[in-house]
Amino acid sequence: MDRVSTPGAVRRLLAVLALAAIATHSAPALRAEKAPWVRQEVSRLLNEGTAALNRGDYARAVEALRRCASLHLNSFHAHYYLGLALVGERRYAEAIEALGIALDLDPSHPGANVAIGNAWLKRGDVDEAFAAFHRALELRADYPPALDGIARAYEARAEDDKATETYRRILARDKGYAEAYTHLGDLLLRKGRVSEAVALLSEAVKIRPDFAEGLDRLAAAYARIGFFDEAIATIERAIALEPLSAAHLATLGSVQLEAGLLAAAEKSLSRALELDPGFPEAREGAAELARRRGDYAAALAAVEAALADPRVDARSRRRLEAMRSVLEREWRDVERLEPRVAAGEAAPEELRALAAVYARRGVFARAAALEEDSRPEGQARETLAYYLLRAGRFREAHTLYAELASGALRADLHVNDGVSLARLGDTRGAAEAFRWALALDPKQLRAKLYLANALLRLGQKDEAVALYKFYLLEAPAGATAERVRRVLLQVAPEALADIPPPAFPVETGPQGGP
How far apart are the C-alpha atoms of 334 and 353, rounded to whole Å? Predict the structure, then answer.
């Protein structure tokens, strides 16, 4: 079929005619292809638009580049950069139209094929995205941005193994392509392989220190392992590089939420929404903030506002819909149980159910009080001990855990008792509790780790380092393993020479096709 007769090409032809009408209306006395003023204006608008695009000011870029395209209908660069700016604005349908015109003008441009593939992927049309990325590969074999797009498309299909293999293919051929390190690191972070993720993301920003996306995702990885100071410092570097990015401010808000800094998180998320009122991650953060404060109406309103935005991408939509279901269920439980608790009519199981809701929101003081009121027995007493520990009521948690541990040959109860004692500042008592746990279960990794922490505080460095090394050999991946690596890096870096580094999956040599 002739290219012009396809529906997409017809729409693009109509778009060109519309732009021609705008140009005619704007300058009826000028012939755009010859007038010196028009040529100067086209050059000025193109420079202005690309400069705005590079600094992340997408709205200004769209305005300038759209005017540029209306004056120079056959300018590939005007339509191409307009498409990129529209992707930045999350106006994916319009971006596809602009990039389609660019490709009509230059079908052999691999970057434009990748760009339109990215727009299709954001819209959730994975098949169209795959087709665009493969067209780019046909134009330039092993083109890293095209392979990276294919890997992200595999992720969209939940085919993580294929995605990982494709990222590996990129890095085997181009170890300087920071985007592949970043996207693979983000995939591994999502799968809980935190040590590998941190290694990859650190490599990305080592290759490109000014790579804001890599810094953003590295900050998220640091937050996962509880290194909140490092996370905040890292995301602030990304914000300094791209101050107009709502994404980085939303990540800062998310990190601050995880750190329990609710007031700071509210300010960061508000700043993100000032830049982009519909930004889904910022709306999601605002919803979580409202949820933690018990304002379910505001939480659901934030989610609904994000879902009502036609620009929301497919992945964010799925995540927001799942969050909406959780919020609706939790709100129903609270509305049903709170009046019964207030009236003194709640049964023990209802008190415990409401306590669980508060615990999920991180309000452990309220959770512990409700659990106490339920007069817990059996397993519920362990739940109460945990809530007391998380609520900072360490003396009561120790008393209860010590009582529970004395009546059961369970290492985990001694471990939790040791944690309570450590929080009380009784490091020797904590170390003794951890040794009791290991006497019951010599393979208890948490006991070994916490004993190492206690011994390090007591100045028994050699035994502590030996236990840290044992932990890393037994459990080399995950957030805790990464924290242990960083402790060893500070107190005994030479010990890491005997520990294999995080084995992130990058190989050399030829790989199979995507």
Answer: 9
